[in-house]
Write a structure and sequence with these properties.
Strand content of chain A: under 5%
Number of helices of chain A: 6
Radius of gyration of chain A: 23 Å
Oligomer: homodimer
Largest sheet of chain A: 2 strands, antiparallel
DNA sequence: CTAAAGCCTCACACCGACGTTAGAGTCAAG
DNA sequence: CTTGACTCTAACGTCGGTGTGAGGCTTTAG
């Protein structure tokens, strides 16, 4: 399969596909004349790349993760030391990811609250004494960020 | 509170705080000499901003969402038409956010699988006939991206 | 009064994740 | 052989989110 077809089938622009390759996330073969040729499995692979990137996962993780999906079978270093380091790195990333998900869920809850309030809006200019849903917001806020905002 | 103190208390650099203001996410008062002065509530607010930005939420949503948190009390347009549009926009964002969370959870599961496998690694160079955990990976992959990768 | 620390604006620079263009080669069909 | 669709590399542009100054004003401490 050439790059154009892969692009059509995945929705990723040709530019993006070449970019992913540049980043080591794809490794198409080449014809004699230099044309990239992709395997069927790359369709899947591209979908996963886009999914992870769109979620703002660090590029490194994407790469490392994907290396394990090359053909559904991981390539794990044989030396135990290196394997340990790999495991450590990945599980750090896992923890970061978990935090990020939690943060997103709180944002989602907050957004849901807001949508509900805009919809069933009790609000208007507001009788000054009326507490409204202020406490709900504050509650969500208290559950709050908390996450380390891992830089 | 001046910008330096807010920076210290939130972990956001001074530069970032000014940037957030530039983007309409913060609106500190000014002293006569032009110094920014922040309210206590801005500590919370900054935390939320960083949390949402770090999760790659579209900047617009952050802004709109935060406007509702100004003082724990939303500012909702009075004209029903505009209110409806706002509700529609926000709930679109809510849907997108939900999808993104789902995608992230799948990525997390996948990553967890991988970590587990690297840890308890049954793998090594691998007996060629051994299916290993390939099916696990494939299963996660099948549950897979699916998300529209909302550009 | 002076020095130091903190603040201000302006502005250039970087990285990631692309879009876009330019100029050239390749390939299948007429 | 020519045309047109497709591909290649290389390079520049853009946008968001930052870092890092430069040059100047304000405030505080000695």
């Amino acid at each position: 399969m050439q790059i154009g077809e892969l692009s059509a089938r995945t929705g990723a622009s040709v530019r993006m596909l070449r970019y992913y390759e540049e980043q080591g996330l794809l490794e198409p073969r080449r014809t004699e004349s230099g044309y990239r040729t992709y395997a069927e499995s790359d369709v899947d692979r591209v979908a996963r790349i886009r999914c992870m990137l769109s979620a703002a996962l660090p590029a490194g993780v994407v790469g490392k993760t994907l290396r394990f999906l090359l053909d559904g079978r991981p390539v794990i270093p044989e030396e135990p030391a290196e394997r340990a380091r790999l495991a450590a790195t990945l599980s750090d990333e896992l923890a970061a990811l978990t935090d990020k998900i939690a943060a997103l869920e709180r944002s989602r809850d907050l957004l849901a609250q807001i949508v509900a309030d805009v919809r069933g809006s009790v609000v208007g200019p507001g009788s000054p004494g009326d507490p409204g849903h202020a406490e709900d917001y504050r509650a969500v806020r208290k559950a709050g960020p908390a996450v380390g905002v891992a830089g």
